[in-house]
Design brief:
Layout lengths: L18 E8 L2 E8 L5 E5 L2 E2 L9 H9 L10 H15 L3 H4 L3 E5 L5 H8 L4 E5 L4 H6 L3 H4 L2 E4 L1
Parallel strand pairs: 5-6, 6-7
Antiparallel strand pairs: 1-2, 2-3, 3-4
Length: 154
């Protein structure tokens, strides 16, 4: 995560802004640390991803599935799926290149990150990919060209 993203994060319990304690960084990327609310609640930053949920509970299966099949929508063997993602975003959500370009986008329940990847390709200024499961790790492992625009949050 980048420190500039702090302006978007609040404690899910209190709604207060959080402060960042950095344990490990790589350039301007925060790899390990904690987000701390004024009341003392702590949320880990692990592997570059802010974690606002302490355990996966019911999401274990989704995390396993999306990490195991992380490249299903990006694999050269299955280009059809990428095109169906474009169509789904257009038909189900009414999104298009014109509506997304230069916008900040929030993708809740991102899974492998394919919808966020399409919106980044469409020119979104920034894409926040959020998932309660460990699937954000699959999305975080996407190519750098995608990650320049996307931020993962668990």
């Amino acid at each position: 995560m980048k420190t500039r993203l702090l302006e978007y994060f609040v404690c899910p319990t209190s709604g207060n802004k959080v402060k960042l304690e950095i344990s490990e960084r790589d350039g301007d990327e925060i790899l390990e640390g904690s987000l701390v609310s004024p009341s003392g609640e702590r949320y880990q930053v692990r592997g570059g991803i802010p974690r606002f949920v302490s355990s996966e509970k019911y999401t274990d299966t989704f995390g396993f599935q999306w990490n195991r099949h992380a490249r299903i929508y990006f694999d050269d063997k299955d280009k059809y799926r990428i095109h169906s993602t474009y169509e789904q975003l257009e038909q189900k959500l009414g999104l298009s290149l014109e509506k997304v370009r230069d916008k900040t986008v929030l993708d809740i329940g991102c899974g492998t990150g394919i919808s966020g990847a399409v919106m980044a390709e469409w020119g979104a200024r920034e894409v926040f990919c959020i998932d309660l499961s460990s699937s954000v790790e699959a999305a975080y492992s996407l190519p750098d060209s995608f990650l320049r625009h996307c931020r993962m949050v668990a």
